[in-house]
Design goal:
6-stranded mixed beta sheet, binds zinc ion, 2 domains, Metallo-beta-lactamase, Chain A, 241 residues, 7-stranded mixed beta sheet, 8 helices
Length: 241
């Protein structure tokens, strides 16, 4: 699906056990190549390639991978991406860098969580953790930074779900790519999933800055597109909690 002419929804799905909500990784198409924003769960690499090809593009032209944060469902295909795209840059926020480089333990994939996973899943998660080594992040992003993508995409630090979580704002489109800072649940904009958000208070505070931006559409990794009264919905999310 096209969000704009240069921004595509890859809508990755889990194979096997029936219908599931897609994981809305995004592909940015710019003159100098492709940028993947988040990369699905382990096992979704082939799907990423298929989706990119279905959009009439060449996956070997993925020049950079931008991670909104460290969670397994966002960086799960990292080992395969590194294998197939050894030249690709990895971009992430400064506060997420130590986790993506194995200098700090992954927040949600703890040893006990690893142990509780079925063997195949555990192996895939461990492989991903093993790929988190010093130097992994090739460009460290800062809050407010304007990226040379989509006519000047802005990095917004939106911590709480993880310390270095970022969302991306595309002023030209009045579009927010929220990552997991927001979700769409039953057609409504919602805050991040509490069970997976260690600092919910900070996550909600992170939303305040969005009221200063003109936003017509919010694209969430979980739930996809929200179009409507974004500021009104944000105020509700912040007061409800
Ligand atoms: Zn997620």
């Amino acid at each position: 699906m096209k969000l704009t002419s240069g921004i595509k929804d890859l809508a990755l799905t889990t194979n096997g056990n029936g219908a599931s909500d897609p994981y809305h990784a995004v592909l940015l198409v710019d003159e100098d190549g492709l940028t993947l924003v988040d990369a699905g769960l382990p096992g979704m690499y082939e799907q990423i390639v298929q989706r990119v090809e279905a959009a009439g593009l060449d996956a070997s032209q993925i020049k950079r991978i931008l991670f909104t944060h460290q969670d397994l469902d966002h960086i799960g295909t990292l080992p395969q991406l590194l294998e197939h795209l050894p030249e690709a840059e990895i971009w992430a926020h400064r506060d997420e860098q130590p986790y993506l480089e194995g200098k700090l333990p992954h927040i949600k994939i703890t040893p006990s969580r690893l142990e509780s996973m079925p063997p195949q899943q555990r192996e895939a998660a461990q492989r991903m953790l093993d790929a988190l080594v010093p130097g992994r992040v090739t460009r460290v992003l800062e809050h407010g930074e304007k990226l040379p993508l989509q006519g000047g995409m802005i990095v917004l630090h939106t911590p709480g779900h993880t310390p270095g979580h970022i969302s991306l704002y595309v002023p030209e489109e009045k579009l927010l790519i929220a990552g997991d800072a927001l979700r769409v649940v039953d057609g409504e904009l919602a805050g991040p999933a509490e069970a997976f958000t260690p600092d919910m208070k900070r996550a909600l505070q992170s939303l305040e800055q969005l009221l200063e931006l003109e936003i017509d559409r919010v694209f969430c990794y979980h739930g996809g597109m929200y179009e409507g009264n974004v500021h009104g919905a944000l105020r509700q999310i912040m007061t409800r909690s």
